From TrEMBL:
This is DUF7129 domain-containing protein. It comes from Natronorubrum texcoconense. It comes from the Archaea. InterPro entries: DUF7129. Residues 6-38 form the DUF7129 domain. Pfam families: DUF7129. NCBIfam families: rubre_like_arch.
Length: 42
């Protein structure tokens, strides 16, 4: 089990998705909009 688990985020404004290991990321790199966490598919 790893503490640095990657999380997928989706932008609320432009639907851009990116996977990051830093849970503090909350700004979209493409448009500057708000990012939200996307639950991983299990």
């Amino acid at each position: 089990m790893s503490l640095a688990e990657s999380l997928e985020y989706e932008c609320l404004s432009c639907d851009h998705r990116e996977t990051v290991a830093d849970a503090l990321v909350s700004t979209c790199r493409r448009c500057g909009g708000e990012m939200r966490n996307v639950d991983p598919v299990r």
